[in-house]
Amino acid sequence: MKPWIEKQHHLIDFTAQSLARRKGKSLGLLVVYTLLVFVLASVSLYTHALRNEATRILAGTPEIVLQRLIAGRHDLVPPGYVERIGRIRGVQKIEGRLWGYYYDSVLKANYTFMVAADREIAPGEIVVGPALERTRGLSEGNGISFRSYSGELHTFIAAEVLPHESELVSADLVLMNEADFRRFFAYPAGHYTDVALWVANPLEVRNVGVKLLDALPDSRPILREEVLRTYASIFDWREGMMLALLSAAILAFGIFAWEKAAGLSAEEKREIGILKAIGWETGDVIAMKFWEGFLVSLLAFLIGYVTAYLHVFHFEFTLFAPVLKGWAVLYPSFALTPQIDGLQVATLFVFTVLPYTAATLVPIWRAATTDPDTVMRS
Amino acid sequence: MLELANIRKVFNQGQHNEYWALKGIDLEIPPAQVSVLKGPSGSGKTTLLTILGCLARPTEGRVRLNREDISGLPERFLTEIRRRTFGFIFQQFNLIRGLSAVENIILPGYPGGTPRAQLLARAEALLADLQLAHRRDAKVEWLSGGEQQRVAICRALINDPEILVADEPTANLDSKLSAEFLLILHRLAESGRTVILTSHDPLVVESAVVDRVYSLRDGLLIEVQHARRAAP
Ligand SMILES: Nc1ncnc2c1ncn2[C@@H]1O[C@H](COP(=O)(O)OP(=O)(O)OP(=O)(O)O)[C@@H](O)[C@H]1O
Ligand SMILES: [Mg+2]
Question: What domains are there in chain A, each with its CATH number?
């Protein structure tokens, strides 16, 4: 065992020296390879993080959201509507919700104003998302004025800033109490924006939807599972597009790698001949070349993956964002929560390091099995 | 001791350019002596040397090393024997460019898994012995022809082989360097190593260090000359 390890040690030494001796070729290969890993890892990290983010957000939302329609358009839920739903079996909780958009002409940005159902907010106070903290310089205890659609100014005290981890959902959020909300938007009393229904049993959701339509023909129940499906299909389609592009890139790389590897230079062939003549076995030569391929691809993998990680989680996926514009419609701008998935890393590793290492070995096999006496005749 | 029995070697067998380079050779290489294979170009010297050094297999016939038949062994074992028993010096020296002298010298020690420190110590002893210690870290392509050959000799000796094999070792050297090389061979033979070379250089063939001369012609052994060893 000891000599075996010592031998691998020698072979790796030799390979590292060989790579250093052929700087141009090694560097070129490393750059192209790193680029490939970078692109693959960027897309993979990005889609993965996005998917997780979306799932996480939707996990907290109600199973059914009921909207009222007038002439096919979303309208306010009138008083008595919630009561008319009455008791439907399987529904755990019914809640009228109040929310709306507010256009901030100072920053030319949209905020989501919302009445918090799960917390008490004192009159005249608001709880804001991190985006407002950033863009309007708001911090706890500060006051801020918004001009309502009727023209009058309303001043609120920021009681709290929401945590940054939930930024994707809450960045532009402004939470306030119901009375303030109704006053600010001049929202008619007893009306709601929509109705949220929580259903405990997932198998019941569809039934509940049908019953809702029966009871309230002018309503539109939106099921969470349908939203999820829509998201999933958007993600899948986008990812599919990317993967199609990427497989072309991988193919090109495969050909490149093959060329590089198959085109063993005369010098390299001569060296292999010498090594064989001075007592290296075919297996030793192949092991040496295996280490070469492995070192190059491992290095490329590490550099490519780390830069991809930085690209996705610290530079907001800048390079490829235009390609994936469709997603931006869902979430205007946000930083993803950094995360690494073991399986994903493993998949990427297998699809980049293994093919290259294998591709370098095939032509070596031929060179390494040449008879050692050919050296005598060069 | 190396013995060949009825060695025949064919190239491109079964093809229109089939060529018998060796046509039945029997010989014995005595241990701890300097033997030379001579003959006109194309007579089969190099071919015979590759068979003696286990670099190639004969088409027919037997090779015996220290009374053991090694001609039927699988490649792995043959390589193992070659590495332990033989050291090679090539006409073109065949050093690996871009590596230093000492790195070149220790290359044959890699497959055996000898620790690097041990290999380096041995290489340095050899370099010192051939007055080359000061060129230890020089890239081989910067060395003179004579220095390159001495590096090649060190490399051939790194695994402490019993037999040293050299093909046309003086072809790239002037007569002064050739004479020095022969002196080195003489010392090696005196210290118990078997030396086999090919040459058509009269300086080598007629040298006093040479103990036996085998003359080849058209793939056949036509004459064996014994010489009494005398100091050169
Ligand atoms: N791989 C090969 N394929 C075909 N023919 C070969 C091969 N190797 C050697 N030969 C032929 O075998 C014959 C003997 O070759 P060899 O190299 O042994 O001669 P040599 O005595 O060493 O000649 P020189 O003094 O020129 O080196 C030559 O005619 C050569 O052309
Ligand atoms: Mg020859």
Answer: 2-58+230-377 (no CATH), 99-186 (2.40.40)
